[in-house]
Structures are given as structure tokens and as C-alpha cells.
Amino acid sequence: MASAEISCPVYPTEDPAKVRDAVMRIFPTADLSEEGGRLSGTADLEAFSKLIRRQKILDSARSSLIRGIRGGRTVVYLNKQVATVGKVSFTDPRPILGAIEVSVADEDIQGLIDRVAPATVDGEEVRP
Fold first, then answer.
1. DSSP per residue over 46-85, as a string?
2. SS3 of residue 121 by DSSP
3. Chain CA centroid to CA 28, Å
4. Which domains does the chain have, with CATH numbers?
5. What is the pLDDT of residues 22-77, one digit of tens each?
6. CA-to-CA distance for 78 and 119, rounded, in angstroms?
7. Given its phi and psi angles, is residue 36 left (phi above 0), alpha (psi -120 to 50 degrees) or beta?
8. Number of neighbouring beta carbons within 10 Å of residue 110
9. Which of 90, 97, 99, 96 lies closest to 8 in space, CA to CA?
10. Nearest by Cα to 80 from 22, 33, 27, 122
11. What is the pTM of this model?
12. Among the four 22, 50, 57, 77, which has the fewest Cβ within 10 Å?
């Protein structure tokens, strides 16, 4: 599965370890570094894909991933506070407390979205 580039601000009022932990709850394979008030790195999308299935938010995830397409890349933003409890929640690009930016590039971006967040009918995954 493709790898995602992850980035989020770490504000002076935040504990960097807690921000790192929040990201790791969504992307446990992330290889992260902190520099200049930002946490950034890469991770695979396997755990993320499992989480959105477990939370039963495939339709929401799919629409956010599709809405974020720009060329061969898609970008979505996740709520940092919700991530601290291991949940995925999509948000605006610039919430007050910052967001986890997830950017994924792929030659077949639609195919990638189909694998990560497949379409559903009556709550059940539909495979092409």
C-alpha cells in the first residue's frame, strides 16, 4: 500500500510526546521527526484503512479523500484531539488547534482510494 506524508504543528502549549502519540495511534508505522514546531514523516495507510472500517466511516473517508484530489495526490486533514483516543475524524485544513495533514501520491490515485476506502452500498463494501 502507498505511503503517506504526515505533518502537523506542535504548538508551544502542547506536549510534543502527546502529539506524537496521537499521530502514532492513527499511523503506528509512522517514522516521525520534530523540527521547527512541526512533526512530520511518512507512514503506510494500512492501520488508517482498518480504523476507518472499524469506525464504519468509509463513506466519509472516501468523500474526504476524493475531495482532496489534486492531480496524482490527495490531501486530507485529521483532528489532532480526536486522534489522541485512536479515532479518525476529518476536519478543515486550519482548525484552531491545528490538524494532522495526510498527503498521499499515487499514479492511480482513484485506485488507491478504492483500496483504502472502498465504496459501500447499505454499509457493505463494494469491490469493483
1. HHHHHHHHHTT-HHHHHHHHHHTEETTEEEEEEEHHHHTT
2. strand
3. 12
4. 3-116 (3.30.1440.10)
5. 999 999 999 999 999 999 999 999 999 999 999 999 999 999 999 999 989 999 99
6. 20
7. left
8. 13
9. 99
10. 22
11. 0.92
12. 50
| Rounded Cα distance, 12 and 23, in Å | 17
pLDDT at 128: 61
Cell of 79: 483532528
Residue 43 Cα distances to 12, 47, 48, 74, angstroms: 25, 9, 10, 15
Helix and strand numbers, DSSP H then E, in the chain: 5, 8
Q: Which three cell numbers stand for residue 74?
A: 490527495
Phi, psi angle pair for 42, to nearest 5°? -130, 155
Euclidean distance between CA atoms 25 and 79, whole angstroms: 12
